[in-house]
DNA sequence: TTAGGGTTAG
């Protein structure tokens, strides 16, 4: 054992040698110098293996308790705690043991205890440590203790406690101000953070930056940019982190001009282009649709092995519909992560390529990626638009088994899936079980009820939403007005259409006008509907003229129908639906000549009729039928069932609506054509293959024809079967001879 | 032995 000063160890090996000396040479341990040496040994050991740290703590256990060593040991625990092998209880056990030995903890001990507690969600423990600290010392006496105390409460999301800890400090230093402001901002208490910022004696780059980032995270990009401007006007220079936050706000606002000027600022100031800044820049350019610059930054900096910048540009391409470019980048990636897959899958889903999305999902396993709630939300969205109920249910089971953490997005996507599959009861159960509901959740519920023809229930949910103090937004009002129009609730619709402006300052856009015009048209107030078309501040679009056209058909208003059709044919000359609607109107009113003119016009313009189909899922397999389809392997049984249907329908006085068929064939053949409609084939197949207690669930790409609608009502009664048909724009729930749409669709 | 802010997917 050398007598002179022993050099502080620099390597694990030197530290181990020192440990050996310290533990074998007895008396030296009691000299303060040994404590310093031990301390530097721990510094060497900390970033190395868990075994070394355990050894160091083992040595602490055998040393006589001292304030100094407690601090060092707690620091060791804290450093270890950030890795997976740290024992979370150790610091608190150490603290208790030393206190029992009569040792008074000092500021450093409390500092590290608070730091250790930040990662443990244990509010009571924190309060007890806080109280112990106050009994021993004043946090203000050592500013860093006050800082770590605030930090601890912030990390645990305890805003009130963080604020109290701050208020307790008698002499508040600049860091304490910054910490409480950034902490409140991080917890989403933006109003409080903003107020404190205005009261702070010094506002530095960090407090401004945290507020900017928090506004951006809360989707309040305008306010984030506002903060940035105030910060500049106070003469505070932004740094890299500030710029990242503002770039993200620019991406949200699609403010390319500001984004580009920030890029210039980065170059001018020679800011460090680290990965985070590169990601933020690429994201800004890509979200603004400036792929020339996005690609430039990406090619210069982002093509590294790590996926973050790839993710930013891939998501940008997906969001702008350039799925193929995104996919080609995706295929070039060496390392993908969950975000890459989720972005790509979302891209595919939004562009309607559901199969590709599901293939990617299958691929995730090969990359050893665990599915998370984002992924499940993507898949549920796909199930919802496909109407894939069994697959959606499988995902629900996956959630119930807690294989993925459920959050508010997941709950909303799940209830939306059930709604879009026509399962109002299951959607309602999901809704009722959700602990937290935001405006999206309520809107999904209201719009789901609306499309399923339960307008009154939708409005009841709207009242309840407001009772729960959730503010409706523009989309909520679309759902509310849809509920009114699908259930013909005219006076309610009028009320809400006016109310949204007065109560919430939401100005109606084309979608709201569309719902209102649809509602007026359906209720037979075609003049009023046309008044609104003529007086609204926006040019009417195809959806609006299509509503007028359908209302004209129901209310037999030929002249107006012609006018609406003319507008539609100008706006969407290739859309077959318009021709078909107008054609049917002429047929209904027996204007054969006009009808054949429409037919000729279609031929002339080479407009092709979209092939109608109906799909039904049996035992996880989707069966798709087109009109007069003979391709199904069980076609003989299906035909036999169709004959039975025809026979039983006629026995209760039903006569097929053959007037809709204009082809010059005999009545028998017309009946056969109607019987071969895809929805009837799908229902016949459902009746022969599904258990009698299961509802028959059909998904159709076009509107249900009138003959099928009447026939299905009767089938539901005769077979005592619930039949659900999702058509192009709504749901029909057939039960006991009635339909939820009240024959209005 | 002591301190604060951040990006990409629904």
From TrEMBL:
It comes from the Eukaryota. Keywords: Repeat, Transit peptide. It holds the Pfam family PPR. Residues 653-745 form the DYW domain. The keyword S-adenosyl-L-methionine does not apply. GO terms for molecular function: RNA binding; zinc ion binding. InterPro entries: DYW_dom, E2_motif, E_motif, PPR_At4g14850-like_plant, PPR_rpt, TPR-like_helical_dom_sf. The keyword Repeat applies. One of its GO terms (biological process) is RNA modification. PPR repeats lie at residues 204-238, 306-336, 337-371, 438-472. This is DYW domain-containing protein. It comes from Oryza brachyantha (malo sina).
């Amino acid at each position: 054992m050398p007598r002179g000063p022993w050099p502080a160890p620099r390597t694990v090996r030197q530290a181990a040698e020192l440990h050996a000396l310290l533990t074998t040479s007895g008396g030296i341990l009691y000299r303060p110098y040994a404590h310093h040496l031990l301390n530097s040994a721990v510094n060497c050991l900390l970033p190395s293996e868990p075994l070394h740290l355990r050894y160091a703590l083992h040595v602490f256990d055998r040393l006589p308790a001292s304030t100094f060593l407690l601090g060092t040991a707690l620091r060791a625990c804290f450093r270890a705690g950030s890795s997976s092998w740290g024992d979370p209880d150790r610091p608190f056990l150490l603290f208790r043991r030393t206190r029992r030995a009569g040792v008074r903890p000092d500021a450093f001990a409390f500092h590290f205890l608070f730091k250790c507690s930040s990662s443990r969600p244990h509010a009571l423990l924190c309060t007890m440590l806080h109280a112990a600290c106050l009994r021993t010392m004043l946090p203000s006496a050592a500013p860093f203790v006050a800082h770590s105390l605030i930090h601890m409460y912030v990390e645990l999301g305890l805003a009130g406690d963080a604020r109290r800890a701050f208020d307790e400090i008698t002499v508040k230093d600049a860091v304490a101000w910054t910490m409480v402001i950034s902490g409140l901002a991080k917890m989403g208490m933006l109003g409080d953070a903003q107020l404190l910022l205005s009261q702070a004696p010094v506002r530095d780059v960090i407090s401004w930056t945290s507020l900017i980032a928090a506004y951006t995270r809360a989707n309040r990009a305008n306010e984030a940019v506002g903060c940035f401007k105030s910060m500049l006007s106070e003469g505070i220079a932004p740094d890299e982190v500030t710029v990242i936050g503002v770039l993200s706000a620019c991406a949200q606002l699609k403010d390319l001009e500001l984004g580009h000027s920030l890029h210039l600022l980065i170059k001018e100031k020679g800011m460090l282009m680290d990965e985070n800044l590169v990601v933020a820049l690429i994201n800004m350019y890509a979200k603004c649709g400036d792929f020339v610059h996005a690609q430039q930054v990406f090619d210069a900096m982002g093509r590294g092995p790590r996926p973050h910048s790839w993710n930013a540009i891939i998501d940008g391409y997906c969001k702008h519909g350039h799925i193929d470019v995104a996919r080609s980048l995706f295929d070039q990636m060496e390392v993908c992560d969950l975000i890459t897959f989720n972005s790509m899958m979302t891209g595919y889903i939004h562009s309607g390529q559901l199969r590709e999305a599901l293939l990617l999902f299958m691929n995730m396993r090969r990359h050893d990626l665990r599915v998370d709630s984002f992924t499940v939300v993507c898949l549920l969205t796909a199930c919802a638009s496909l109407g894939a109920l069994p697959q959606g249910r499988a995902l629900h089971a996956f959630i119930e088994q807690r294989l993925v953490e459920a959050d508010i997005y997941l709950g909303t996507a799940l209830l939306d899936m059930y709604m879009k599959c026509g399962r109002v009861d299951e959607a309602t159960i999901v809704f009722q079980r959700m602990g937290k509901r935001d405006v999206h959740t309520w809107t999904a519920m209201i719009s789901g009820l609306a499309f399923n023809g339960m307008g009154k229930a939708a409005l009841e949910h709207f009242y309840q939403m407001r009772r729960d103090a959730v503010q409706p937004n523009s989309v909520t009002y679309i759902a509310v007005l849809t509920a009114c129009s699908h259930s013909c609730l005219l006076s309610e619709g009028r009320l809400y259409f006016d109310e949204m402006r007065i109560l919430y300052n939401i100005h109606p856009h084309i979608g709201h006008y569309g719902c209102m015009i649809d509602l007026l048209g359906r209720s037979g107030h075609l003049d009023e509907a046309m008044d609104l078309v003529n007086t609204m501040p926006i040019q009417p679009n195809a959806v609006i003229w299509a509503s007028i056209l359908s209302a004209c058909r129901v209310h037999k208003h030929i002249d107006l129908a012609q006018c609406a059709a003319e507008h539609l044919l100008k706006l969407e000359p290739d859309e077959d639906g318009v021709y078909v609607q107008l054609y049917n109107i002429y047929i209904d009113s027996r204007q054969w000549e006009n009808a054949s003119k429409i037919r000729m016009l279609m031929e002339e313009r080479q407009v092709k009729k979209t092939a109608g189909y109906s799909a039904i899922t049996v035992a996880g397999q989707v069966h798709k039928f087109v009109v007069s389809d003979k391709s199904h392997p069980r076609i003989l049984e299906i035909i036999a069932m169709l004959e039975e249907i025809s026979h039983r329908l006629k026995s209760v006085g039903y006569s097929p609506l053959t007037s809709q068929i204009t082809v010059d064939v005999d009545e028998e053949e017309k009946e056969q054509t109607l019987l071969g409609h895809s929805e009837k084939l799908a229902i016949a197949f459902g009746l022969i293959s599904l258990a009698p207690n299961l509802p028959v669930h059909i998904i159709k790409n076009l509107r249900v024809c009138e003959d099928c609608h009447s026939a299905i009502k009767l089938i539901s009664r005769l077979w005592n079967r619930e039949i659900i048909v999702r058509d192009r724009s709504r749901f029909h729930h057939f039960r006991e001879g009635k339909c939820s749409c009240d024959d209005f669709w």
